[in-house]
Write a structure and sequence with these properties.
The complex is a heterodimer of chains A (about 240) and B (about 240). In chain A, about 25% of the residues lie in helices and about 25% in strands. In chain A, helix 2 runs parallel beside helix 4 and helix 4 runs parallel beside helix 5. Chain A has a single domain (about 5-240), classed as P-loop containing nucleotide triphosphate hydrolases (Rossmann fold, 3-Layer(aba) Sandwich), CATH 3.40.50. Chain A has 6 helices and 11 strands. Chain B is an all-alpha fold. Chain B has helices spanning about 1-5, 10-40, 45-60, 60-75, 80-85, 95-120, 125-130, 135-145, 150-165, 170-175, 185-195, 195-230. Classes of the chains: A alpha/beta (about 240), B mainly alpha (about 240).
């Protein structure tokens, strides 16, 4: 609906999903938004925010019916029986709880992504191990085991790892919700700077208005599995 | 000292036992990893039937298992027909046949710990790896195998130790051929039959000590693992 507001040269992400769960909940969304900046997916709990994010990632095991086009790539088209598996989609996903590989230390966790880094319009220097560990201030904890990290440090490593894989789309599922207020304030600045430096489009699931106001420039509001607003961010839309 | 206490036949039996256990464990690991992985992932209705079937040797008298395997390996049995068609003689009373029988016998001891290990990984690490661009085979070798190292070790030790201790299946399928299928437990039985009690004492004693050491090793591994995964290491910098 608001897609006309953006210049035509913009890359778009278009999605159209229908997903029926057993418990009478269904997700029925259709949107077309610019593939840039931070898009906040906002809504009460059980409004389908995480389900939508998992649909974008291809992580729904009961495959959602529908279509998904990201930029010039078709990721899913149920009518044409196209479904790009998750590992072939150039995306990265930051989960709600920091999901580091516990059998690897911090450095090895980052290298796991580095080894599988995808082609990207972002310059190689920006996405080098050096610059990412520098940006996220991880240099001093590289040799630590994941068990020796605080919650905030873990999530910082998880976000750094996601960036290192050079995604064209970064999906974040309430990355700060498992942290206390102090740790949140420790990570928020990184997220703000992240956008300016790397310009990776981010879809950011969140129900914290302060976070959204700080980060988002596009908003998608969900209510009971349906979109009730999608378009340019404005704080007034957070009061649904 | 040991050479005078243990006769050449004793050593032969020990050799046959170790060889059988090693070969059996090796092949069981290959099959067990595939089977346990399938069991940990599948939502098929067949799963519970396969699980029950795999667990059968736990409660079945080994002689029952041995009896059917012997029939299957015979000229009229399904395995016998296959080996015949391939130009081999029957597997009954051969080392290869004994390996096959031991694999059936020790299967649950290898599959169970592996399945537990696979299931304890959970879905999340695999999802993370997929979103970082790792395909299914990549995930298996870069993530799953390293994460179940512990389970593989436990499965190997249990499979190995359990094969060493088998008796009924060997008696039915392997016969009692010196140096080939006469394993330690059968050899011990022979000594007792011949009323050679002092020899039997030595063999039985060796088995007890060996079994105890194996279990000790197993508990040591499990202990050190649970310490590593729950507590913060004493040297948090990993230096």
């Amino acid at each position: 609906m608001d897609s006309n507001k953006y210049p035509p040269s913009f890359q778009m992400i278009s999605a159209d999903f229908f997903l029926q769960y057993d418990n009478n909940f269904s997700l029925e969304v259709s949107f077309s938004l610019p593939l840039s900046g931070v898009t906040a997916i906002f809504g009460a709990s059980a409004s389908g925010k995480t389900s939508l994010l998992r649909c974008l990632a291809g992580l729904i095991d009961k495959k959602a019916k529908g279509e998904l086009t990201v930029g010039d790539q078709c990721w899913q088209n149920s009518k044409k029986k196209i479904f790009l598996p998750t590992h072939k989609r150039p995306l990265a996903y930051v989960f709600q709880e920091p999901s580091l590989f516990d059998h690897l230390n911090v450095k090895e966790n980052l290298e796991y992504a580095l080894k599988r880094q995808r082609l990207s319009p972002i310059t190689k220097e920006k996405l080098s191990f050096e610059s990412i560990t520098d940006f996220f201030d991880l240099k001093t904890i590289l040799k630590r085991s994941t068990f020796a990290l605080s919650g905030g440090e873990k999530q910082r490593v998880a976000i750094a790892r996601a960036i290192l894989s050079a995604p064209r789309l970064l999906l974040m599922d309430e990355p700060l919700s498992s942290l206390d207020e102090e740790k949140k304030q420790e990570i928020l600045p990184y997220l703000e700077k992240l956008q300016q430096l790397f310009q990776i489009p981010i879809f950011y699931v969140c129900h914290n208005k302060e976070e959204i106001t700080k980060l988002a420039n596009t908003l998608l509001v969900l209510k009971q599995g349906k979109i009730i607003y999608s378009g340019v961010f404005s704080p007034s839309f957070l009061n649904f | 000292m040991m050479t005078t206490i243990l006769s050449p036949e004793d050593w032969q039996a020990i050799g046959a036992t170790l060889k059988l256990s090693l070969v059996t464990t090796f092949f069981l690991l290959l099959i067990g990893i595939a089977l346990a992985w399938w069991l940990s992932q599948t939502r098929s209705r067949l799963k519970i039937f396969v699980e029950a079937f795999v667990a059968l040797p736990l409660i079945l008298p080994p002689t029952v298992l041995g009896f059917y395997l012997l029939l299957a390996m015979g000229p009229q049995g399904p395995i016998g027909k296959i080996t015949n068609a391939l130009g081999f003689s029957s597997l009954a009373f051969t080392f290869e046949g004994l390996v096959l029988a031991s694999m059936c016998y020790s299967l649950p001891f290898v599959v169970r710990p592996l399945q537990n290990a696979f299931e304890s990984i959970g879905i999340r690490p695999l999802e993370v790896a997929a979103t970082l661009g790792a395909g299914p085979w990549d995930r298996f070798f870069s993530l799953i195998l390293p994460m179940i190292k512990q389970g593989i070790l436990t499965a190997s030790i249990l499979g190995f130790a359990h094969t060493i201790g088998e008796f009924g299946v060997v008696l039915m399928v392997g016969g009692n051929i010196p140096g080939v299928t006469r394993v330690l437990s059968i050899h011990l039985y022979d000594q007792v039959e011949a009323l050679e009690y002092s020899k039997a004492h030595w063999l039985a004693g060796i088995m007890i000590i060996f079994s105890f050491l194996i279990l000790l090793l197993l508990h040591m591994i499990n202990n050190s693992h649970s310490k590593n995964s729950k507590k913060i290491p004493s040297k948090p910098y990993g230096l």
